[in-house]
Amino acid sequence: MATPPATQSTTPDPDPAPAATLAPAASTSAAQTLPEPLWRESKVRNGDSLSLLLNRWGVSSRTVYQLEKSSGGRQLRKLIPGETIRALLDAEGELQQLVYAKSRLHSEHFVRNNGSFSHRTVVREADVLPTLRSGVIEDSLFLSGQRAQLPDRIIMELANIFGWDIDFIFDIREGDSFALIYEEKYLDGELLGSGNILAAKFVNRGKVYRAVRFEDQHGDAAYYSAEGISMRKAFLRAPLDVFRISSGFNLKRKHPIHKMIKAHRGVDYAAPTGTPVFAAGDGKVIESGFSSANGNYVFIKHGQTYITKYLHLHKRSVKTGDSVKQRQVIGSVGATGYATGPHLHYEFLVNGVHRNPRTVPLPQATPVPVEDQLAFERFATPLLQQLEPSAASSLEIASSELPESNRQ
Q1: In this predicted model, what pLDDT tens digit does every residue of 316-340 receive, in sequence order?
Q2: For 64, how many CA atoms within 13 A lie in the half-sphere containing its CB?
Q3: How far is residue 188 from each of residues 3, 7, 9, 43, 192, measured CA to CA in Å?
Q4: What predicted TM-score, i.e. pTM, was given to this entire model?
Q5: pLDDT score at 67
Q6: So where are the chain's domains?
Q7: How far is CA 79 from the centre of its chain?
Q8: What are the pLDDT digits (tens) for 41-95?
């Protein structure tokens, strides 16, 4: 497992020096009557503007106007909550420097210079270290991932990578296992967050699934199996992330409202009202409307062979004729029409015939381009070897050894 760097980054700290080192020495009498130059800092909150923040500190509207009209000042006109504004005020309360920190890695610096403000952008680079984690399923993937010290975002991404092949609600079993290499980002020895999953393995009921993130010559990144087959199928196995199956595909089901045997030609995914519903694949919306039985519904046609249907939506986000991409939000879970509670009724049709969405074979997406296959093999082989039990005690690959196009 990778560890954070022992020494701070070689990139110099872009933040201005403390006020005491910037201010000229003052006489004893002046120091007794005038305040020392000081830095003020504030996190941007909803409704904040630059003028509102600086006016709180006694900075004049004229100075704010000069800042916004300076080179780079246009970015100061729309601050985003969570960003940071730092201002250096001199002994008379005049603004001398302003730092607009968009993130720990990106900041805009403004310095007073002969009555106006000069500007420079400072972008720092985090140290990106590959990190190995592994675990065994004891209950859910999420809880088991947390025990393996995986960030929540990485757990969700792991599920997304293998989600076309594994139903993480019904398919996983106690004793299944996973291993993955993902990026951790550090700045001056402090963990900032996680990056991409570089490679992953999941063992489900004895069957091994492997995936590697690879970026082709055109800069397009995707996850592929060890054989170079795309992990991404043409369709999602389930069109929403948070759910439980309340009613499966059953041609002899007793209808809960009508109390009679009526074929249930889809799968019901129970989820809270408002849960986003995704398009299962690229396609065109052929119907988006409302009926007393279906409530709000969306039907999508995918080429000449497939149609997917989404019923009982709370809201629809697309209209008839729209083109949609896979995982595009098309609506949200609701309980409109003949529904006993909030859920999505999802149907999958092949050549006009209803098929079980949970078991129907899903067509593959494109494999690694032919011209990139040798580069893929050279990149994937050492990563996948690190996921094997014999290599689990250490992670020998370093980020500097990765091809440049696959480090971002």
Answers
A1: 999 999 999 999 999 999 999 988 8
A2: 16
A3: 13, 7, 5, 22, 10
A4: 0.62
A5: 92
A6: 34-123, 127-233+366-406, 244-355
A7: 22
A8: 999 999 899 999 999 999 999 999 999 889 888 999 889 999 999 999 988 888 9
Containing H/E element for 278? strand 276-278
- Choose among 354, 339, 278, 274: nearest CA to 310: 278
pLDDT at residue 158 above 90? Answer: yes
* Domains 34-123 and 244-355 alike in fold: no
**What is the CATH number assigned to the segment(s) 244-355?**
2.70.70.10
- How far is Cα 379 from Cα 312, in angstroms, rounded to an integer? 46
- Letter for the amino acid at 67? L
- State CA 151 to chain mean position distance: 12
**DSSP per residue, 100-126:** EESSSSEEEEEEEETTEEEEEEEE---
Q: What is the pLDDT of residues 253-264, one digit of tens each?
A: 444 544 554 567
User: pLDDT value at position 259?
Assistant: 52
- For 123, 131, 135, 386, the CA distances from 147, given in Å and listed in that order, are 34, 16, 8, 21
Write phi, then psi, for 277 (nearest 5 degrees).
-115, 130
**Top-level class of domain 34-123:** alpha beta
Amino acid (one-letter) located at 226: A
Per-residue confidence (pLDDT) for residue 397, from 0 to 100:
43
Please give the CATH architecture assigned to the domain spanning 127-233+366-406. Roll (3.10)
**Collapsing DSSP states into helix, strand and coil, what is residue 406?**
helix
Concatenated DSSP letters for 17-54? PPHHHHSPP--HHHHHHSPPPEEEEEE--TT--HHHHH
Q: Other CB atoms closer than 10 Å to residue 115's CB: what's the count?
A: 6
